Here is the input.
Amino acid sequence: MMMITKFWFLETIFLLISMANSPVESEELHTHVETNQESPLERTVSSFRKFRPSLNKHSHEDNDIDEVGVNEPIESNPERQDDYVKMEEVGDCRAYEGEIWVEGLSAILVFYLVILVVGAWAGWTRRGKELSQEQVMLAGRDLGLFVGVLTMGATWVGGGFINGSAQGVYSKGLIWTQAPFGYSLSLVLGGTFFAKKMRESGYVTMIDPFTQKYGKWGALMVLPAAVSEIFWCAAILGALGSTLHVILHLNDDVSIIISAVIALCYTLFGGLVSVAYTDVIQIFFIVIGLFLALPFAMTHPAVSNIYSAKLDDGLTPAWYGSVAPHEWGGWMDHSLLCLLGGIPWQCYFQRVLSAQTSTRAQLMSYGGAAIALVMTGPAVLFGAVARATDWSLTEYPCSAPSGDTAKLVMPLTLQYLTPPAVAWFGLGAISAAVMSSTDSSLLSASSLIARNVYQKVFRPGCGEREVVMALWVIIVGNCALATTLAIQYKSIYELFVLCGDFTYVILFPQLLLVIYWSVANTYGSLSSFLLSLTLRLLVGDKYLGLPAVFSFGAMTADCPTVENPDLVCEGELPYRTFIMLIGLIVHIIVSAATHLTFCMAEVDLRWDFLNCYQ
Here is the structure.
């Protein structure tokens, strides 16, 4: 569906917003267009605008700075900039130092305080109830449909979802921003094919079917699942720290630690019930903040019409992006990774398994998918707005965001293209989105380790209370680990990308067979796991600098240029999908062979060294 060049459904959903920027022909993407006619939305917005027509002022310089006209570019005066800007020497203006933006800091504090109070209240409502795994990990399997749908949506619509979608459109175009669409639709697939079976079986975690069917060997699946959750938590904490450092001038390490401690406190206090109820508050913050800010950003004087710049065909808007013939292999690979790799995540199944019935588990999945798809709209439109902005007409002290700064186009757009009050709420909304992902990842990863490793492998006979106590200790440890990773390693996002590969390449075929194929056994599972992991590492990874030992080949296509009309370009084949299918086939072959060996041929069971048939 993302191959459709017109993306009519997005245009339909946001028709009223698009009316604010009626199509205007332009030769340049960042051309500032003047018009004497206002659309209905512009008249509505202008009626209560509070910022100067030329720019939005969030800086902290003295009040005697001269006004800048609407059509007058802001001069880069080194003497003036040195008073409040400290550029990095590499020329990539990723961060600057100056006075703390007090109003923005107050937004963060207010939102954090509200989240902490709600989380504490939700945990307090569960006082006196039996201390068990189901109570802490699954809220007693008593989540209502309304809360369940909202917590499902908030878990997906987190900081990475919003910031990443905006960055994707800004950097490469809408067609390359597969993640929000793929992960949203993965909830539909999960609800249709997995939620009902998992809930009816009464599992507590996503790894339970593995440990029940494969014994202790099934706990091996915790490794990619839990590590992915921890790295995801570290990645979004690191992104939050960078955002607050650039926008508020706060120390990023302090921001990361405070955010992690707040999420830790209410997660420890109430478990999933606290996480779920804070998710309800957070999703409301996110929805109101983004939809409130979007019209202001789109109608800012520095923003040209997002549909005016076209691709080479003269019809398709430039921000839709394009896929070259040699890039379709990589595009398809990433699309399938998001679509199918978005299913085997504990944070998803934790909500599915907390539903009162299997039908509600499915409805929660579908409702969460609807929320994620709706919130994809403003997220990608913010990327289009940033792309159509002439940043020299704003108070942004650098040229258009690029390099590492491109990851911050969402908060930068809020800061420089919206009024202070709107930016205040929008920044709080982004922080709320980060918190909704952080607490979910902490609880999910810790639940897997406490139940499927500590209880199933090391302490098979321990009681419920001991497991819960171990869960609390593991949550603290995982929080400390994620916080440390976020502070120490700036490439943590690339580590998460690799772990996202693992959930698709390793976990998806494993989950599919353990749920749907009764013949699947430990021999097939272990063979598939080791082969898939080995192949994935051997093909290398450019983000981590892993050299490629071998390759599945490349996709070639002509890409002539004026300088070189015979140029041929190479693109990657969907190697992740190839490895996933190889692992799936090996799992089936080995499981079927061992089943025939011990069940049909009745080979002596003393050769069953994994004790599958004894």
